[in-house]
Write a structure and sequence with these properties.
heterodimer; A: mainly beta; seven-stranded mixed beta sheet; four-stranded antiparallel beta sheet; 49% strand; globular
Chain lengths: 114, 115
């Protein structure tokens, strides 16, 4: 059972380049999320998708776009990468709306923007 | 504003020592509370969660946490740590039923256990 799969695991970009982080889950969850993890700041929500066809901004959406391609897949795009976007990115999914359900996380993408 | 605060940023213990990591939250309404662990180079894994019932919850690997509603706290404990517990620990909260599942995380606590 794969759970949440993210690609790539590592990426180095030059300032101004674009890229898309891919995420897929096989747990039939309705909701999916993108977080970024920075030292001393925990994880912060970038965007989320409560259900297929909907997306909403989280705490730190600037510089990012997302696409909920179908129920399984939720991608994160950086249109013009900046050094401030150097971070570790985690995708997660959950069956939101039910009391006590937890989120399941992917392995993460370590992105460096130079 | 909704927030989670973890008191300890970096904890160093010897094996067999007892552990308590503090977590306080600010969140209106009913809450679901979680502790996640991130071992070096790995993704976040759920240690335990609380959403209703007995405020003392037990998780994997001998961890437990106590929800104290009056103190808005959800502290993590383990009676005797092992070297393999070296990891980063995150406390997180989201709303009760009907919520979107969005998590608010604390800053994280890095635990280093010396053999």
């Amino acid at each position: 059972n794969a759970g949440v799969t993210q690609t790539p695991k590592f990426q180095v970009l030059k300032t101004g380049q674009s890229m898309t982080l891919q995420c897929a889950q096989d747990m039939n969850h309705n909701s999916m999320y993108w977080y970024r993890q920075d030292p001393g700041m925990g994880l912060r929500l970038i965007y989320y998708s409560a259900s297929e066809g909907t997306t909403d901004k989280g705490e730190v959406p600037n510089g990012y776009n997302v696409s909920r391609l179908n129920k399984r897949e939720f991608s994160l795009r950086l249109e013009s990468a900046a050094p401030s976007q150097t971070s570790v990115y985690f995708c997660a999914s959950s069956e939101a709306g039910q009391r006590g359900t937890e989120a399941f996380f992917g392995q993460g993408t370590r992105l460096t923007v130079v | 504003a909704q927030s989670v605060s973890q008191h300890n940023h970096h904890v160093i213990l010897s094996e067999a020592a007892s552990l308590e990591l503090g977590c306080n939250y600010s969140y209106g309404g009913t809450v679901n509370l979680f502790w996640y662990v991130q071992y070096p180079g790995q993704h976040l894994q759920l240690l335990l969660k609380y959403f209703s019932g007995d405020p003392l919850v037990k998780g994997i690997k001998g961890f437990e946490a106590e929800f104290i509603k009056s103190k808005f706290s959800f502290n993590l404990r383990k009676p005797s740590v092992q070297w393999s517990d070296t990891a980063e620990y995150f406390c997180a909260v989201n709303g009760g039923s009907g919520n979107t599942g969005k998590l608010i995380f604390g800053q994280g606590t890095t635990l280093q256990v010396k053999p």
